[in-house]
Amino acid sequence: MKTATRFSFVSLAFAALLHSSLLADEQADKIQALEKRVEQLEKLLQQRDAKAAAAPPGDAPKPAETPQSLPSLSIGASGFTLRSADTNFMLRFRGLLQLDSHWSDDDAIGDSFLVRRARPILEGTVFRDFDFLLTPELAGSSPSLRDAWVNYRYNEVLQLRIGKMKPPGNLERWQSAANLLFIERSPVSLLWPVRDVGVMLHGELWPGDKDTTKTLAASGLANYSVGLFNGTGDGRSAGNSDFDSDKTVAGRLFFHPLLKSRIELVRKLGVGVSGTYGEMSGDSGLPEDFGYAADVTADGPHWRVGPQAYWYWGPFGVIGEYAVSSQRLELQVAPFGSTRAENSAWAITASWLLTGEEGTFGYPTPKRTFDPANGGWGAFQLVARYSGLDIDDGLFPTFADPAELATSATVWGVGLNWFLNRNIRASFNYTHTDLKGGQSGSVADLGENAFLTRVQLAF
Hints:
Blueprint: H1 2-54, E1 72-76, E2 79-83, E3 90-104, E4 112-126, E5 130-137, E6 144-153, E7 159-165, H2 171-174, E8 196-207, H3 210-213, E9 220-229, E10 248-255, H4 264-267, E11 268-282, E12 296-313, E13 316-331, E14 337-353, E15 379-390, E16 408-419, E17 424-436, E18 446-458
Antiparallel strand pairs: 1-2, 2-3, 3-4, 3-18, 4-5, 5-6, 6-7, 7-8, 8-9, 9-10, 10-11, 11-12, 12-13, 13-14, 14-15, 15-16, 16-17, 17-18
Protein backbone atom coordinates (compact mmCIF):
# COMPACT_ATOMS: atom_id res chain seq x y z
CA MET A 1 0.00 0.00 0.00
CA LYS A 2 2.79 2.37 0.85
CA THR A 3 4.55 1.45 -2.37
CA ALA A 4 1.46 2.33 -4.43
CA THR A 5 1.09 5.68 -2.69
CA ARG A 6 4.73 6.57 -3.27
CA PHE A 7 4.37 5.69 -6.96
CA SER A 8 1.36 7.99 -7.32
CA PHE A 9 3.20 10.91 -5.73
CA VAL A 10 6.19 10.46 -8.05
CA SER A 11 3.89 10.31 -11.06
CA LEU A 12 2.17 13.57 -10.11
CA ALA A 13 5.48 15.35 -9.55
CA PHE A 14 6.75 14.18 -12.93
CA ALA A 15 3.56 15.38 -14.64
CA ALA A 16 3.81 18.81 -13.01
CA LEU A 17 7.43 19.13 -14.02
CA LEU A 18 6.58 18.17 -17.59
CA HIS A 19 3.73 20.72 -17.73
CA SER A 20 6.00 23.48 -16.42
CA SER A 21 8.56 22.65 -19.03
CA LEU A 22 5.96 22.89 -21.80
CA LEU A 23 4.70 26.31 -20.55
CA ALA A 24 8.23 27.69 -20.44
CA ASP A 25 8.84 26.56 -24.01
CA GLU A 26 5.56 28.14 -25.15
CA GLN A 27 6.40 31.49 -23.48
CA ALA A 28 9.85 31.44 -25.03
CA ASP A 29 8.28 30.92 -28.46
CA LYS A 30 5.91 33.89 -27.92
CA ILE A 31 8.72 36.18 -26.81
CA GLN A 32 10.78 35.17 -29.82
CA ALA A 33 7.81 35.88 -32.14
CA LEU A 34 7.29 39.33 -30.55
CA GLU A 35 10.96 40.16 -30.95
CA LYS A 36 10.75 39.30 -34.65
CA ARG A 37 7.71 41.56 -35.08
CA VAL A 38 9.49 44.44 -33.34
CA GLU A 39 12.46 43.96 -35.67
CA GLN A 40 10.15 44.02 -38.70
CA LEU A 41 8.44 47.21 -37.50
CA GLU A 42 11.79 48.90 -36.90
CA LYS A 43 12.87 48.00 -40.43
CA LEU A 44 9.63 49.42 -41.87
CA LEU A 45 10.06 52.67 -39.92
CA GLN A 46 13.64 52.98 -41.08
CA GLN A 47 12.61 52.43 -44.71
CA ARG A 48 9.83 55.08 -44.41
CA ASP A 49 12.19 57.65 -42.87
CA ALA A 50 14.74 56.98 -45.59
CA LYS A 51 12.14 57.51 -48.33
CA ALA A 52 10.90 60.74 -46.69
CA ALA A 53 14.45 62.10 -46.46
CA ALA A 54 15.10 61.33 -50.13
CA ALA A 55 11.77 62.76 -51.42
CA PRO A 56 11.43 66.41 -52.63
CA PRO A 57 10.03 68.87 -50.02
CA GLY A 58 6.68 69.11 -51.84
CA ASP A 59 6.12 65.36 -51.49
CA ALA A 60 6.71 65.31 -47.73
CA PRO A 61 3.76 64.00 -45.77
CA LYS A 62 1.54 66.83 -44.53
CA PRO A 63 0.66 67.09 -40.87
CA ALA A 64 -2.93 66.57 -39.95
CA GLU A 65 -5.00 69.72 -40.43
CA THR A 66 -6.21 71.46 -37.33
CA PRO A 67 -9.94 72.07 -37.12
CA GLN A 68 -11.01 75.39 -38.67
CA SER A 69 -13.23 77.88 -36.85
CA LEU A 70 -16.63 78.68 -38.31
CA PRO A 71 -17.63 81.91 -40.12
CA SER A 72 -18.61 84.70 -37.73
CA LEU A 73 -21.64 86.99 -37.65
CA SER A 74 -21.52 90.27 -35.75
CA ILE A 75 -24.22 92.86 -35.22
CA GLY A 76 -23.34 96.26 -33.83
CA ALA A 77 -23.18 100.01 -34.32
CA SER A 78 -21.17 99.55 -37.55
CA GLY A 79 -23.80 97.34 -39.20
CA PHE A 80 -24.39 93.66 -39.79
CA THR A 81 -21.16 91.86 -40.68
CA LEU A 82 -20.58 88.31 -41.90
CA ARG A 83 -16.94 87.20 -42.01
CA SER A 84 -15.31 83.97 -43.20
CA ALA A 85 -13.21 81.85 -40.83
CA ASP A 86 -9.97 82.94 -42.52
CA THR A 87 -11.16 86.64 -42.58
CA ASN A 88 -10.45 86.85 -46.34
CA PHE A 89 -14.14 87.31 -47.14
CA MET A 90 -16.41 89.87 -45.51
CA LEU A 91 -19.91 91.16 -46.20
CA ARG A 92 -21.39 94.13 -44.34
CA PHE A 93 -24.86 95.61 -44.59
CA ARG A 94 -25.26 99.23 -43.47
CA GLY A 95 -27.84 101.93 -43.97
CA LEU A 96 -28.44 105.69 -43.91
CA LEU A 97 -31.81 107.33 -43.34
CA GLN A 98 -32.21 111.12 -43.01
CA LEU A 99 -35.59 112.66 -42.25
CA ASP A 100 -35.56 116.45 -42.67
CA SER A 101 -37.76 119.47 -42.35
CA HIS A 102 -37.21 122.89 -43.96
CA TRP A 103 -38.85 126.11 -42.78
CA SER A 104 -38.15 129.37 -44.62
CA ASP A 105 -39.48 132.92 -44.90
CA ASP A 106 -39.02 132.69 -48.68
CA ASP A 107 -42.44 131.84 -50.16
CA ALA A 108 -40.78 130.56 -53.35
CA ILE A 109 -39.14 127.75 -51.40
CA GLY A 110 -41.97 126.67 -49.12
CA ASP A 111 -41.99 124.67 -45.92
CA SER A 112 -41.82 120.92 -46.06
CA PHE A 113 -40.98 117.59 -44.47
CA LEU A 114 -38.88 115.30 -46.65
CA VAL A 115 -36.94 112.07 -46.78
CA ARG A 116 -33.55 113.55 -47.65
CA ARG A 117 -31.62 110.31 -47.99
CA ALA A 118 -32.58 106.63 -47.80
CA ARG A 119 -29.62 104.42 -48.68
CA PRO A 120 -29.13 100.70 -48.07
CA ILE A 121 -25.36 100.17 -48.23
CA LEU A 122 -23.70 96.89 -49.16
CA GLU A 123 -19.93 96.64 -48.83
CA GLY A 124 -17.39 93.91 -48.38
CA THR A 125 -14.15 92.17 -49.25
CA VAL A 126 -13.42 89.12 -51.42
CA PHE A 127 -10.15 87.21 -51.54
CA ARG A 128 -8.63 89.54 -48.92
CA ASP A 129 -7.49 92.32 -51.29
CA PHE A 130 -10.63 93.25 -53.26
CA ASP A 131 -13.13 95.63 -51.66
CA PHE A 132 -16.47 96.71 -53.09
CA LEU A 133 -19.25 99.19 -52.34
CA LEU A 134 -22.80 99.32 -53.69
CA THR A 135 -25.08 102.20 -52.63
CA PRO A 136 -28.51 102.81 -54.17
CA GLU A 137 -30.47 105.96 -53.31
CA LEU A 138 -34.16 105.37 -52.64
CA ALA A 139 -35.09 108.93 -51.67
CA GLY A 140 -36.19 111.46 -54.29
CA SER A 141 -38.51 111.17 -57.24
CA SER A 142 -36.87 107.99 -58.56
CA PRO A 143 -34.24 105.51 -57.33
CA SER A 144 -30.65 106.08 -58.43
CA LEU A 145 -27.22 104.51 -58.02
CA ARG A 146 -24.82 106.56 -55.89
CA ASP A 147 -21.81 104.26 -55.53
CA ALA A 148 -20.79 101.13 -57.40
CA TRP A 149 -17.07 100.38 -57.34
CA VAL A 150 -14.42 97.69 -56.85
CA ASN A 151 -11.13 98.54 -55.14
CA TYR A 152 -7.90 96.50 -55.29
CA ARG A 153 -5.54 96.95 -52.31
CA TYR A 154 -1.99 95.96 -53.17
CA ASN A 155 -1.16 97.70 -49.91
CA GLU A 156 -2.16 100.95 -48.18
CA VAL A 157 0.20 102.93 -50.44
CA LEU A 158 -1.07 101.57 -53.75
CA GLN A 159 -4.78 100.98 -54.43
CA LEU A 160 -6.84 101.00 -57.61
CA ARG A 161 -10.56 101.80 -57.70
CA ILE A 162 -12.88 101.35 -60.70
CA GLY A 163 -16.55 102.28 -61.02
CA LYS A 164 -18.89 105.04 -59.88
CA MET A 165 -17.44 106.94 -56.94
CA LYS A 166 -16.67 110.29 -55.36
CA PRO A 167 -13.90 111.79 -57.49
CA PRO A 168 -11.19 113.92 -55.85
CA GLY A 169 -12.81 117.21 -54.85
CA ASN A 170 -13.44 119.40 -51.83
CA LEU A 171 -13.36 118.35 -48.17
CA GLU A 172 -17.12 118.30 -47.70
CA ARG A 173 -17.52 115.93 -50.65
CA TRP A 174 -14.81 113.74 -49.12
CA GLN A 175 -16.84 113.59 -45.92
CA SER A 176 -19.67 111.06 -45.64
CA ALA A 177 -23.19 112.48 -45.71
CA ALA A 178 -23.74 110.88 -42.30
CA ASN A 179 -20.89 112.93 -40.79
CA LEU A 180 -21.62 116.43 -42.12
CA LEU A 181 -21.44 119.21 -39.55
CA PHE A 182 -24.37 121.05 -41.16
CA ILE A 183 -27.51 119.57 -42.63
CA GLU A 184 -26.66 120.92 -46.10
CA ARG A 185 -23.22 121.32 -47.59
CA SER A 186 -21.64 124.73 -48.18
CA PRO A 187 -21.60 126.62 -51.53
CA VAL A 188 -18.08 125.26 -52.18
CA SER A 189 -19.58 121.84 -52.85
CA LEU A 190 -21.69 123.34 -55.65
CA LEU A 191 -18.53 123.74 -57.74
CA TRP A 192 -17.41 120.09 -57.59
CA PRO A 193 -18.88 116.86 -59.04
CA VAL A 194 -20.96 114.72 -56.67
CA ARG A 195 -20.22 111.33 -58.30
CA ASP A 196 -18.43 110.30 -61.47
CA VAL A 197 -17.53 107.11 -63.32
CA GLY A 198 -13.91 106.23 -63.97
CA VAL A 199 -10.72 104.75 -62.56
CA MET A 200 -8.67 106.14 -59.68
CA LEU A 201 -5.25 105.37 -58.17
CA HIS A 202 -4.95 106.31 -54.49
CA GLY A 203 -3.03 105.60 -51.31
CA GLU A 204 -1.65 106.74 -47.97
CA LEU A 205 2.06 107.10 -47.17
CA TRP A 206 3.82 107.06 -43.78
CA PRO A 207 0.76 106.38 -41.60
CA GLY A 208 0.48 107.74 -38.07
CA ASP A 209 -0.68 105.92 -34.98
CA LYS A 210 -4.29 104.76 -34.96
CA ASP A 211 -5.27 106.76 -31.88
CA THR A 212 -4.45 109.96 -33.77
CA THR A 213 -5.60 109.14 -37.30
CA LYS A 214 -8.96 107.59 -36.35
CA THR A 215 -10.40 111.12 -36.14
CA LEU A 216 -8.94 112.31 -39.47
CA ALA A 217 -9.94 111.92 -43.12
CA ALA A 218 -6.91 109.72 -43.86
CA SER A 219 -4.20 107.96 -41.87
CA GLY A 220 -1.11 108.94 -43.85
CA LEU A 221 1.30 111.81 -43.47
CA ALA A 222 0.87 112.15 -47.24
CA ASN A 223 -2.27 111.05 -49.11
CA TYR A 224 -2.92 111.09 -52.84
CA SER A 225 -5.60 110.25 -55.39
CA VAL A 226 -5.56 110.71 -59.15
CA GLY A 227 -8.05 109.41 -61.68
CA LEU A 228 -9.55 109.55 -65.15
CA PHE A 229 -13.33 110.11 -65.27
CA ASN A 230 -16.13 110.62 -67.77
CA GLY A 231 -16.59 114.15 -66.45
CA THR A 232 -19.70 116.01 -65.33
CA GLY A 233 -20.88 119.49 -64.46
CA ASP A 234 -20.59 121.33 -61.14
CA GLY A 235 -22.81 119.89 -58.44
CA ARG A 236 -23.90 116.97 -60.65
CA SER A 237 -23.84 113.23 -60.21
CA ALA A 238 -22.79 111.58 -63.46
CA GLY A 239 -24.89 108.94 -65.17
CA ASN A 240 -23.75 105.34 -65.32
CA SER A 241 -22.39 105.71 -68.86
CA ASP A 242 -20.96 108.36 -71.17
CA PHE A 243 -21.72 108.96 -74.84
CA ASP A 244 -18.72 111.05 -75.87
CA SER A 245 -14.96 110.57 -75.76
CA ASP A 246 -14.23 113.64 -73.62
CA LYS A 247 -12.64 112.76 -70.29
CA THR A 248 -11.62 114.60 -67.12
CA VAL A 249 -8.49 114.15 -65.01
CA ALA A 250 -8.98 114.74 -61.28
CA GLY A 251 -6.54 114.59 -58.40
CA ARG A 252 -5.94 115.47 -54.77
CA LEU A 253 -2.84 115.81 -52.58
CA PHE A 254 -3.49 116.03 -48.86
CA PHE A 255 -0.89 116.21 -46.10
CA HIS A 256 -0.75 115.93 -42.32
CA PRO A 257 2.67 117.63 -42.07
CA LEU A 258 2.93 117.42 -38.27
CA LEU A 259 1.20 114.07 -37.81
CA LYS A 260 4.14 112.56 -35.94
CA SER A 261 4.93 115.63 -33.88
CA ARG A 262 4.96 115.38 -30.09
CA ILE A 263 3.02 118.63 -29.89
CA GLU A 264 -0.63 117.63 -29.66
CA LEU A 265 -1.85 121.11 -30.60
CA VAL A 266 -0.61 120.78 -34.21
CA ARG A 267 -0.68 117.02 -34.76
CA LYS A 268 -4.13 116.98 -36.40
CA LEU A 269 -3.51 119.73 -38.93
CA GLY A 270 -4.28 118.75 -42.52
CA VAL A 271 -3.69 120.79 -45.69
CA GLY A 272 -4.22 119.92 -49.33
CA VAL A 273 -5.36 120.87 -52.80
CA SER A 274 -7.65 119.28 -55.37
CA GLY A 275 -8.05 119.95 -59.06
CA THR A 276 -9.69 118.75 -62.27
CA TYR A 277 -9.15 119.38 -65.98
CA GLY A 278 -11.14 118.10 -68.96
CA GLU A 279 -13.23 118.82 -72.01
CA MET A 280 -16.94 119.28 -71.36
CA SER A 281 -19.78 119.58 -73.84
CA GLY A 282 -23.56 119.57 -73.73
CA ASP A 283 -26.06 120.34 -71.01
CA SER A 284 -24.66 117.69 -68.65
CA GLY A 285 -21.49 119.78 -68.41
CA LEU A 286 -23.35 122.78 -66.97
CA PRO A 287 -23.76 123.47 -63.25
CA GLU A 288 -26.76 121.72 -61.71
CA ASP A 289 -28.75 124.61 -60.26
CA PHE A 290 -27.22 127.87 -61.49
CA GLY A 291 -29.98 128.77 -63.97
CA TYR A 292 -27.98 129.66 -67.08
CA ALA A 293 -29.97 130.76 -70.13
CA ALA A 294 -31.88 128.00 -71.96
CA ASP A 295 -29.65 127.96 -75.06
CA VAL A 296 -26.31 128.02 -73.23
CA THR A 297 -24.23 124.84 -73.29
CA ALA A 298 -20.81 123.69 -72.13
CA ASP A 299 -18.30 123.67 -74.96
CA GLY A 300 -14.61 123.32 -74.24
CA PRO A 301 -12.05 123.09 -71.45
CA HIS A 302 -13.27 123.05 -67.86
CA TRP A 303 -10.90 123.21 -64.90
CA ARG A 304 -11.31 123.44 -61.14
CA VAL A 305 -8.88 124.05 -58.29
CA GLY A 306 -9.48 124.08 -54.57
CA PRO A 307 -7.09 124.57 -51.61
CA GLN A 308 -8.42 123.02 -48.40
CA ALA A 309 -7.47 122.48 -44.76
CA TYR A 310 -8.74 121.23 -41.40
CA TRP A 311 -7.51 121.24 -37.82
CA TYR A 312 -8.64 119.34 -34.72
CA TRP A 313 -7.59 119.77 -31.13
CA GLY A 314 -9.47 118.17 -28.27
CA PRO A 315 -13.21 118.83 -28.77
CA PHE A 316 -12.57 121.65 -31.29
CA GLY A 317 -12.40 121.49 -35.07
CA VAL A 318 -12.12 123.87 -38.04
CA ILE A 319 -12.57 123.17 -41.76
CA GLY A 320 -11.74 125.78 -44.40
CA GLU A 321 -11.75 125.61 -48.20
CA TYR A 322 -11.88 127.67 -51.38
CA ALA A 323 -12.72 126.67 -54.96
CA VAL A 324 -12.69 128.11 -58.47
CA SER A 325 -14.53 126.53 -61.40
CA SER A 326 -13.61 127.88 -64.84
CA GLN A 327 -15.63 126.75 -67.85
CA ARG A 328 -16.07 127.68 -71.51
CA LEU A 329 -19.71 128.28 -72.49
CA GLU A 330 -21.39 128.75 -75.85
CA LEU A 331 -24.65 130.48 -76.76
CA GLN A 332 -26.27 128.54 -79.58
CA VAL A 333 -28.83 131.15 -80.73
CA ALA A 334 -28.56 134.78 -81.81
CA PRO A 335 -26.62 136.81 -80.94
CA PHE A 336 -24.40 133.68 -80.60
CA GLY A 337 -21.04 133.85 -78.92
CA SER A 338 -18.91 132.21 -76.26
CA THR A 339 -17.40 133.16 -72.92
CA ARG A 340 -15.36 131.74 -70.08
CA ALA A 341 -17.16 131.75 -66.73
CA GLU A 342 -15.10 131.67 -63.54
CA ASN A 343 -17.26 131.01 -60.51
CA SER A 344 -15.76 130.82 -57.04
CA ALA A 345 -16.84 129.85 -53.50
CA TRP A 346 -15.40 129.64 -50.01
CA ALA A 347 -16.40 128.38 -46.57
CA ILE A 348 -15.05 128.12 -43.04
CA THR A 349 -16.77 125.89 -40.45
CA ALA A 350 -16.02 125.59 -36.74
CA SER A 351 -17.23 122.90 -34.32
CA TRP A 352 -17.10 122.32 -30.57
CA LEU A 353 -18.20 119.14 -28.77
CA LEU A 354 -19.66 120.52 -25.55
CA THR A 355 -19.57 117.15 -23.77
CA GLY A 356 -15.80 116.75 -24.24
CA GLU A 357 -15.57 114.11 -26.97
CA GLU A 358 -12.71 114.31 -29.45
CA GLY A 359 -13.26 116.48 -32.52
CA THR A 360 -13.35 114.35 -35.65
CA PHE A 361 -13.78 114.37 -39.42
CA GLY A 362 -16.04 111.37 -38.92
CA TYR A 363 -18.75 110.53 -36.40
CA PRO A 364 -17.99 111.23 -32.71
CA THR A 365 -18.50 108.49 -30.14
CA PRO A 366 -20.55 109.80 -27.18
CA LYS A 367 -18.94 109.26 -23.79
CA ARG A 368 -22.39 108.41 -22.45
CA THR A 369 -25.16 107.22 -24.75
CA PHE A 370 -28.72 108.48 -24.43
CA ASP A 371 -30.24 106.75 -21.41
CA PRO A 372 -32.14 109.25 -19.23
CA ALA A 373 -32.98 106.64 -16.60
CA ASN A 374 -29.25 106.32 -15.85
CA GLY A 375 -28.25 109.93 -16.47
CA GLY A 376 -26.96 109.51 -20.02
CA TRP A 377 -27.83 112.18 -22.59
CA GLY A 378 -25.39 111.56 -25.48
CA ALA A 379 -23.02 114.13 -27.00
CA PHE A 380 -23.77 117.72 -27.98
CA GLN A 381 -21.91 119.73 -30.62
CA LEU A 382 -22.13 123.42 -31.53
CA VAL A 383 -21.30 124.38 -35.13
CA ALA A 384 -20.96 127.68 -37.00
CA ARG A 385 -20.24 128.43 -40.67
CA TYR A 386 -19.57 131.45 -42.83
CA SER A 387 -19.51 130.94 -46.61
CA GLY A 388 -20.00 132.63 -49.94
CA LEU A 389 -20.54 132.07 -53.67
CA ASP A 390 -19.60 134.46 -56.48
CA ILE A 391 -20.94 134.08 -60.04
CA ASP A 392 -18.90 135.54 -62.91
CA ASP A 393 -20.31 138.99 -63.77
CA GLY A 394 -19.51 138.38 -67.45
CA LEU A 395 -22.40 135.92 -67.68
CA PHE A 396 -25.00 138.68 -67.38
CA PRO A 397 -27.23 139.38 -69.21
CA THR A 398 -26.36 137.23 -72.27
CA PHE A 399 -25.58 133.86 -70.69
CA ALA A 400 -27.66 134.21 -67.52
CA ASP A 401 -30.82 136.13 -66.66
CA PRO A 402 -30.13 138.63 -63.84
CA ALA A 403 -33.77 138.25 -62.80
CA GLU A 404 -33.24 134.51 -62.21
CA LEU A 405 -29.63 134.14 -61.06
CA ALA A 406 -27.97 136.20 -58.34
CA THR A 407 -24.40 137.32 -58.88
CA SER A 408 -23.37 136.48 -55.33
CA ALA A 409 -24.56 134.87 -52.12
CA THR A 410 -23.24 135.13 -48.58
CA VAL A 411 -24.43 132.57 -46.07
CA TRP A 412 -23.88 132.28 -42.35
CA GLY A 413 -25.38 129.72 -40.03
CA VAL A 414 -25.28 128.12 -36.58
CA GLY A 415 -26.37 124.69 -35.48
CA LEU A 416 -26.62 122.09 -32.76
CA ASN A 417 -25.91 118.40 -33.31
CA TRP A 418 -27.16 115.92 -30.73
CA PHE A 419 -25.54 112.47 -30.97
CA LEU A 420 -27.76 110.20 -28.91
CA ASN A 421 -25.51 107.22 -29.63
CA ARG A 422 -23.37 105.82 -32.45
CA ASN A 423 -26.42 105.44 -34.70
CA ILE A 424 -29.00 108.12 -33.88
CA ARG A 425 -28.44 111.84 -34.38
CA ALA A 426 -30.64 114.94 -34.34
CA SER A 427 -29.56 118.24 -35.93
CA PHE A 428 -30.95 121.77 -35.79
CA ASN A 429 -29.69 124.55 -38.12
CA TYR A 430 -30.45 128.20 -38.60
CA THR A 431 -29.05 129.87 -41.74
CA HIS A 432 -29.25 133.38 -43.18
CA THR A 433 -28.54 134.02 -46.87
CA ASP A 434 -27.89 137.38 -48.51
CA LEU A 435 -28.37 137.39 -52.31
CA LYS A 436 -27.28 140.16 -54.64
CA GLY A 437 -28.84 140.64 -58.06
CA GLY A 438 -27.46 140.55 -61.57
CA GLN A 439 -25.55 143.15 -63.49
CA SER A 440 -28.67 144.90 -64.78
CA GLY A 441 -30.08 145.35 -61.30
CA SER A 442 -33.27 143.47 -62.12
CA VAL A 443 -32.99 141.55 -58.84
CA ALA A 444 -33.09 143.56 -55.65
CA ASP A 445 -30.99 142.57 -52.67
CA LEU A 446 -32.66 139.57 -51.12
CA GLY A 447 -32.35 137.74 -47.83
CA GLU A 448 -33.55 134.36 -46.72
CA ASN A 449 -33.88 132.95 -43.21
CA ALA A 450 -34.22 129.20 -42.87
CA PHE A 451 -34.58 126.72 -40.03
CA LEU A 452 -33.71 123.10 -40.82
CA THR A 453 -34.01 119.95 -38.74
CA ARG A 454 -32.85 116.37 -39.24
CA VAL A 455 -33.27 113.03 -37.54
CA GLN A 456 -30.70 110.53 -38.79
CA LEU A 457 -30.27 106.79 -38.48
CA ALA A 458 -26.86 105.57 -39.65
CA PHE A 459 -25.34 102.15 -39.08
